[in-house]
Amino acid sequence: MSNQQEIPKTGNRTTLSSSVKSFLEKHKKLRLGGDEDFHTERRHHLEVFGFHNLPKDKQVRIRRVHYDGVRGRHGTIPVRLFYPRSFDESTKHPALIYFHGGGYTVGSVDEFENGLRLLAEAAVMITIGVEYRLAPEWPFPTQLDEYEDVLAWTRSSEGARLGIDKNRVLGGEDSAGGNMTAALCLRLKDEGKQPLKAQILLYPEARLPFDTPAATENNSGYYLECNGIFSFADHYLPRAPNKSYSPAHRYISPGMQPVEKLSGLPPAAVFTCGFDPLRDVGVEFASRLRQAGNQVVWRHYPSLTHGFLQMAPWSGDSEETSKDVANLMWELAG
After folding, report:
1. Which pLDDT does position 4 carry in this prediction?
2. What whole-number distance in Å separates Cα of residue 104 and Cα of residue 140?
3. Averages of pLDDT over each 10 residues, the chain, 334 residues
4. CB under 8 Å to 152, separation ≥6 — which residues?
């Protein structure tokens, strides 16, 4: 994996992909807006992106789906394992744990199933969709606890029974999920625990984007509403009388940490998009990880926007980009 590509301070954008533009125009009410009443956003995302609502010819074919549950510290965590058609029962395979995006507040495995099938098939590995507990009902650090519980499960006898190679478990997520993957990598390092094999970060929310060019250029109209990101952060952060945490906490804003505090982390693949309000915090985080001496590959798609993994059924450009993600997953799995 090449580690030599120069990473700039900010990203750029060109012309919005015609297929993405068409999708956004067709679904004008679909957005991640951080609305105070988030229930409508939850329902609308499931109506559009839910696997069961996709036309049959858009559903990615794989070998099989396995439904299971992980006994976590906050209760049972439903998980869904996707097996590629090339899966060999006689050997162990790498696996990707996927904590979906949605501002910590919106989303379900149903909405990411097609993307996880695509990644499983193209990367020739098991992908694991996790139905983690959402904010604001369950604030930080519930999600990191559940992430670590699922990771431990993949490395247990249960994971082995399901064909998982415990030494080749990657963490891969988008948006808020990318934040959680970066945070988990820091927490595992701080606690002296076995790291993830690699971190796959799709348009990660490494920190709040209040001071970036992308926050102005892509403020509204490209699916993720920039100003809504602050509402999502408000959902995620706990309040008194519960234990409270600073927004700059190491496991809440990985992208704000000093470079010297980001060393010794798993190899990272970071993907950013030109029309995404999170574009520049993703580029910045990739750069900081590189400066800290970590192995980093950065891929930038100037004509795409936030959410390309979910938009793949409607956008050939998004589908090809998702396959680029899968190729790097395969490479990083070793």
Report:
1. 66
2. 9
3. 76 98 97 92 97 96 98 98 97 98 97 98 98 97 98 98 98 96 98 98 96 97 97 92 91 97 98 98 98 98 98 98 98 96
4. none
In the chain, the amino acid numbered 236 is: Y
pLDDT on residue 230: 95
Q: 143: closest CA among 74, 243, 235, 70?
A: 74
Closest CA to 186 of 254, 245, 132, 140: 254
One-letter amino acid at 52 equals: H
The per-residue pLDDT for 5 is 80
Residue 25 to residue 123: CA distance in whole angstroms: 31
Minimal CA–CA distance to 329: which of 202, 203, 207? 202
What is residue 180's predicted lDDT score, i.e. its pLDDT?
98
Cis peptide before 277 (omega within 30 of 0): no
Written as one letter, the residue type at 213 is P
The pLDDT value recorded for residue 234 is 94
User: Which residue, among 181, 179, 75, 88, has the nearest Cα to 128 in the 3D structure?
Assistant: 181
Token code pair at residue 270: 């970071």
- CA-CA distances (angstroms) from residue 18 to 6, 37, 214? 28, 31, 20
pLDDT (0 to 100) of residue 36: 81
pLDDT at 37: 87
Distance CA(325)–CA(43), nearest Å, equals 28
